[in-house]
Amino acid sequence: MNTRLSLFDSPLFLGFDHFEQTFDRLKKHSSEGYPPYNIEQIGDTGLRITLAVAGFSMDNLEVEIDQNQLTIRGRQNDDDDSEHIYLHRGIAARQFQRSFVLADGIEIVEASLDNGLLHVDMRRIVAKSTARQIKINNNKKLAQQSIKKIKAIESNREDEGSTS
Predict the structure, then answer these.
(1) pTM for the predicted model, two decimal places
(2) Which residue blocks in 43-86 are alpha helix, DSSP H?
(3) How many angstroms separate the CA atoms of 112 and 118, rounded?
(4) Which pLDDT score, from 0 to 100, does residue 147 have?
(5) Residue 85, CA atoms < 13 Å, CB-side half-sphere
(6) pLDDT tens-place string over residues 80-96
(7) Chain mean position to CA 28
(8) Which of 41, 116, 35, 46 is nearest to 72 (CA)?
(9) Which domains does the chain have, with CATH numbers?
(10) Which of 29, 52, 105, 159 has its CA 20 to 30 A from that of 73?
(11) Residues 6+ apart with CB under 8 A from 145
């Protein structure tokens, strides 16, 4: 029996399962070394990731965001190499994929290619406070109704997921 315990198994961290999944993705991608990159702070809310992608054109690069994971891929065509006879080949024409997990509230502004450097500019959206007072009920019937509401909402989500 393989039981893996983590910080997020604590009853104090309710609903943080996605953080554990994020850490697992980070561990998987942490050994990547190519291409080299920088991360810069720009102003109070701006960030910039710069990757050294010499030899890649805009057509060879793809920048994608999915569920707070920024993925940058580079693919070069090897078709052009059939015409060349190399005496020494020191410039690698290899494909790559580099992933970054972004915090909630990070928005991609733009991506640009300049002199072999791919820049991905982002900004942190400063959220308004969501603090509010919660009314405390002293009624068992209301508590049971609340539980039924939660179960009905979950049941509707499961039904929607099975029809798609």
Answers:
(1) 0.61
(2) none
(3) 6
(4) 86
(5) 0
(6) 666 778 888 777 668 99
(7) 13
(8) 35
(9) 10-134 (2.60.40.790)
(10) 105
(11) none
